[in-house]
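Thread: Newbie trying to understand structure tokens

Hi all, I'm a second-year student working on a class project, and my supervisor (Dr. K.) asked me to get a predicted structure for one chain before our next meeting. I've only ever worked with sequences, so writing a 3D structure as a token string is new to me. If someone could post the tokens and maybe explain what I'm looking at, I'd be very grateful. Here's the chain:
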Amino acid sequence: MREFELLAAAGATHPCCVPSRRRAALLKVPGNLLERVALGSTAGMIKLEGSAFLMGTNSTEGFPADGEGPVREIALDPFYIDAAPVTNAQFAEFMRASGYRTEAEQFAWSFVFQGHIPEERRAALVNDTVLAAPWWCKVPGATWEHPEGPDSNIAARDEYPVTHVSWNDAVEFARWAGKRLPTEAEWEFAARGGLEQNRFPWGDELTPGGRHVCNIWQGEFPTRDLAEDGYAGTSPVEAFPPNAYGLYSVSGNTWEWCADWFHPSYHLVGARMNPTGPSIGTARVMKGGSYLCHASYCNRYRVAARTANTPDSSTTNIGFRCVRDVATA
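---
Reply by user tm_fold:
Sure, no problem. This is what the structure looks like when written as tokens:
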């Protein structure tokens, strides 16, 4: 029996981007109150003043089970957020300094998109694919340093987002850096860049003026990626213009872990000031979409879109960025 499957228990539908380790999906782990952190360096971070904003969407273009709506007013305290996702170079510094082993290394495998696996190696993995989404393969030796498997490396990808990091790995990096993961509300507030209820960080048109301004799939998913945006996999974190707040790569490229446990309807009764999500759950929120998102199947590169994955899962299209609280006198 396969020991992994697509995450369905959390309520996500059309979960093309979130294969998960089933072992974790069966667990229900208590969550803690969010610990405020104001220790790490603010270099490379953007300070955002706290304010109220309209979170979520009433649009029907998403997936009802994801719980994108209804629109609600949320208020946040000021915070700092990384201008870009954590890069391979930054993660390598953490690994050298800490001696940490990622969960992909501990499990000795991670999920890789089939199109990024050499054909001669892909044939051997035919029985190690995700049942409902065979474009995901369980690849032995796939890690943050070897994104497509043991015969690959990140030698020329210092400024690309680190991948094959689980939620637990991201938390350890954030702790080492004196930071934390953003709440879903903080992430969405920052990604909107001051725009109110627009679909994307730059407005409502996916390709304004015919220009590609994010890294997502073009062509026929999952068999043919035209890479019209210049990339058939991840791209450097600053490959496309930032939003009005100065944040790069908040749509497409890689999914980004958030601190919250996922629930499709918790926000109907949850806090409206600095919300942190449910206290328990089986999967953590992810935001932003990835280079595998396509309108025909998974249009979750919209700002209000959300999905989830189990906290020990890792893939070639999940990364993260950190936040830090503003110190008070």
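A couple of things are worth pointing out once you decode it. Confidence is low (pLDDT under 50) at residues 1-14. The domain at 4-33+43-325 is CATH 3.90.1580.10 (paralog of FGE (formylglycine-generating enzyme)). Feel free to ask follow-ups in this thread.
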